Amino acid sequence: MSRVGKGLVVALISFVVCTSAYVAQADPGPGSPIPANDPFYSWDGSLDVSPGTVLRSRPMTFATPTQTTPIKGDQVLYRTTDQQGDGVVTVATVLRPLIPGPTKIVSYHMAYDALGSQCDPSYTLSGGATSPIAGAEQAVIAGYLAAGYTVVAPDYEGEDLEWTIGRQSGYAALDGVRAAQSFLQVPSSTPVGMIGYSGGSVPTQWGAEVAPQYAPELNIVGVAAGGLPVDLAHNLPYVSGSAQWAGVIPALIVAYQRAYGLDTSTFLSEYGAQVIDQVDQECIAQFADDYPTLTDASMVKAPYTSLLDVPEVVAAIDDNIMGSQGTPTIPLFLAVGHADPIGDTVMITADVEGLAHEYCGRGVDVQYSQYDGLTHGEAFPPFEAQGLQFLTERFAGGPTHSNCAVIGPGNSLAPTPIP
After folding, report:
1. Helix or strand (DSSP H, E) at 139
2. Which domain holds residue 270?
3. How far is CA 39 from the centre of its chain?
4. Which of 118, 124, 149, 364 has its CA 20 to 30 A from that of 9?
5. Residues 249 and 270 in one domain
6. How far is CA 32 from CA 5, 49, 86, 122, 123, in A?
7. Which of 268, 301, 318 is the last residue of a domain?
């Protein structure tokens, strides 16, 4: 474990006192039902309220399945917006630091990459199901708390677990900040940083992209996103047949089916239909490497030879290309591993470079890092260390370190033509 990683774990176990929590409902606690079976997560009332409005709340304890901590927080159910612009609800976990001082909010986006609610951050952070990924991210969150930051962790995939869906993930992140500010009774001028890696980069990058139009009142000082899925039309052939990552292909089809109402019977093969049923309620730790021989071609039936031959799939992918919906107005830190000539084993290096280059051309202050020789998993620790440094400097009002002048053009962000 790196020195940074050890420091974050020490920060987690060193909390020996706790802040008081606002008590509105029973503490969920370890052993509570998963979100899909927990009425706290559902809302039958009107959503004719402003995005970010808190609808209900309850206290929680920061915990793992085997260990509780003295760190207390709250879960808030709030109104947000889906990909089609309709009102929906989701939950954010609000954790306050023990160190007194002005409120500084870090919106931390966990890479829960889930199709089942048992991997929702709100459930994980209160002692529910976990994984090595979630455990590492809990340690990082503890580090931010120890450093005096208030942490907001939204369930940005929403009630229906719509993984990788861009705008609504960004909306959920921004509305999670709004909800936290309202709940904590702090002004919208409170400084905010956003950070996320891999699946967590989706709400992070999209939050930065849509914020100027969707949440212009928020005082976002910096955004750090690593291991980004910029254009999944490029990732699809890269992970096809991958022993480590091929399982993400059927999982993406499940997510698109939920978000866009795809009629998968028109293009999935018998095998493809079988696999999406198998992954339907799983999370990435279960599905990613379970299908080492699965290929893009094996998912579809004639006359199709690839999911990229299917107009509805291509349209959904094109609707989620990063950089396509707006331009951030705040400094960005973007990073990616580069373990082979294409990428970090799942993300495309030149896609992230291309996104950075595109934003530089639009006048965005971008700091780009490429971790040569590191896979997707191996790039997580250096990204978190650099992301922490980047946000620390942004909150302190320090100078930025844009390297736009040396960022290459990378790949084009042009949408894939619809067949």
Report:
1. helix 132-146
2. 232-318
3. 24
4. 118
5. yes
6. 29, 29, 30, 12, 9
7. 318
Residues 136 and 57 in one domain: yes
Q: Which residue has the tokens 């369930």?
A: 155
Would you state the pLDDT for residue 28? 59
The number of distinct structural domains making up the chain is: 2
Token look-up 């400084």 returns 191
Mean pLDDT of 151-166: 97
Do residue 66 and residue 211 come from a single domain? yes
Mean pLDDT of 303-332: 98
> Is the pLDDT reported for residue 34 higher than 70?
yes
The pair of three-digit structure tokens given for residue 287, joined into one six-digit string: 């599905």
Amino acid letter for position 358: E
User: In terms of domains, do 288 and 271 share one?
Assistant: yes
Task: Report the candidate in 413, 416, 404, 316 with the shortest Cα–Cα distance to residue 355.
Answer: 413
Closest by alpha carbon to 312, among 210, 206, 419, 155?
419
Do both 99 and 199 map to the same domain?
Answer: yes
Closest CA to 222 of 367, 26, 22, 36: 367
Residue 81 has what pLDDT?
98
- Where residue 165 falls among pLDDT bands split at 50, 70, 90? very high
Q: Are residues 165 and 77 in the same domain?
A: yes
- Considering the domain architecture, whether residues 271 and 332 belong to the same structural domain is answered as no
- The CATH number for 279's domain is 1.10.260
At residue 101, the pLDDT reads: 84
pLDDT, tens only, 194-232: 999 999 999 999 999 999 999 999 999 999 999 999 999
Q: Which of 318, 350, 380 is the last residue of a domain?
A: 318
To the question of pTM greater than 0.85 for the whole model, the response is yes
AA letter at 27: D
**Alpha carbons 114 and 147: distance in angstroms, whole number:** 29
The dihedral over CA atoms of 356, 361, 366, 367, expressed in degrees to the nearest 10, equals: 70
Q: Are residues 159 and 300 in the same domain?
A: no
Check whether the bond before 399 is cis (ω within 30° of 0). no
